[in-house]
């Protein structure tokens, strides 16, 4: 599980505790990689202390605030170099419920999306405006890219290894919303199976949102560009027989 952090000191310890609880009842518990962008509030230092105390926590320290998309890409490379069969994206702000992880692993798909916008999903604590922007963004991406996914901007995902091995990670340019949209779009274009699992998304109570107007505007033009100039990824190879049995998060 890859968890990017920037000034998440107030949330990180609770997140690790919640993941530890879920981990004890997951058949293939796996590891957690914290990717910290030199947080001024000391998040990286806390992450290093947790890694020293816990065998399944690891830290990737980066020199500065380089962006969410590159944090995940660096995390993907780290995970692929170590042979994990499944890789999960998860925010550090406690918005994503760790208890959904066993359902992700049981879904048996190339990409599992933690979805706010399918039956059983919910958004808690957002204003009407924020809900409207998120819904509109997902609808826009679905329409332009002809995706059958309701929550295209979700940042809570589980990938099979073969997806991230096949995508040209160097060609990913987006941050924020559009990074998530692009990965879902490219997985579907490669012939990957995509499943949405309902989650209850909760707005952060500590720290500040990283959402900006620039991230929203980037999504508008990059989604259109993905339609005009779709990435030329190879088709996915067959699923290896062990992948349905040996799972790491």
What is the secondary structure topology, with strand pairs?
Elements: E1 2-5, H1 9-23, E2 32-36, H2 43-53, E3 57-61, H3 68-80, E4 86-89, H4 101-106, E5 111-115, E6 122-124, H5 128-145, E7 157-160, H6 161-166, H7 176-189, E8 194-198, E9 200-202, H8 213-228
Parallel strand pairs: 1-2, 2-3, 5-8, 6-9
Antiparallel strand pairs: 4-7, 5-7
Task: Report on this structure.
Strand 1 (2-5), helix 1 (9-23) and strand 2 form a beta-alpha-beta unit. This protein has a single domain, classed as Spore Coat Polysaccharide Biosynthesis Protein SpsA, Chain A (Alpha-Beta Complex), CATH 3.90.550.10. The relative contact order is 0.18. With 249 residues, it is of the alpha/beta class. The protein has helices at 9-23, 43-53, 68-80, 101-106, 128-145, 161-166, 176-189, 213-228; strands spanning 2-5, 32-36, 57-61, 86-89, 111-115, 122-124, 157-160, 194-198, 200-202. The chain has eight helices and nine strands.
State mean pLDDT (0 to 100 scale).
88
Distance between the termini: 5 Å
The coarse overall form would be globular
Q: Would you identify the regions where 5 or more consecutive residues have pLDDT less than 50?
A: 242-249
In CATH terms, the superfamily is: Spore Coat Polysaccharide Biosynthesis Protein SpsA, Chain A
**Briefly, what CATH class?**
Alpha Beta
| Portion of residues within helices | 25-40%
């Amino acid at each position: 599980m890859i968890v990017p952090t920037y000034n998440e000191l107030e949330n990180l310890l609770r997140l690790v505790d919640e993941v530890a609880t879920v981990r004890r009842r997951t058949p293939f518990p796996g590891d957690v990689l914290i990717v910290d962008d030199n947080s001024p509030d000391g998040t990286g230092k806390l992450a290093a202390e947790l890694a020293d105390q816990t065998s399944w926590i690891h830290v990737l320290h980066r020199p500065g605030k380089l962006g969410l998309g590159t944090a995940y890409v660096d995390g993907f490379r780290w995970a692929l170099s170590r042979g994990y069969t499944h890789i999960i994206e998860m925010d550090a702000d406690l918005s994503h419920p760790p208890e959904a992880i066993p359902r992700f692993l049981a879904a048996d798909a190339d990409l599992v999306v933690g979805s706010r916008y399918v039956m059983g999903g919910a958004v808690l604590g957002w204003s009407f405006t924020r809900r409207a922007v998120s819904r509109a963004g997902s609808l826009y991406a679905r329409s332009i890219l002809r995706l059958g996914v309701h929550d295209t901007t979700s940042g809570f995902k589980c990938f099979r290894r073969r997806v991230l091995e096949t995508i040209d990670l160097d060609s990913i340019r987006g941050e924020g919303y559009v990074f998530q949209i692009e990965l879902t779009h490219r997985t579907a274009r490669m012939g990957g199976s995509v499943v949405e699992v309902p989650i209850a998304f909760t707005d952060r109570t500590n720290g500040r949102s990283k959402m900006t107007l620039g991230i929203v505007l980037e999504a508008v033009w990059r989604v259109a560009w993905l339609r005009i100039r779709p990435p030329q990824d190879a088709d996915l190879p067959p699923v290896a027989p062990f992948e349905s049995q040996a799972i790491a998060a």
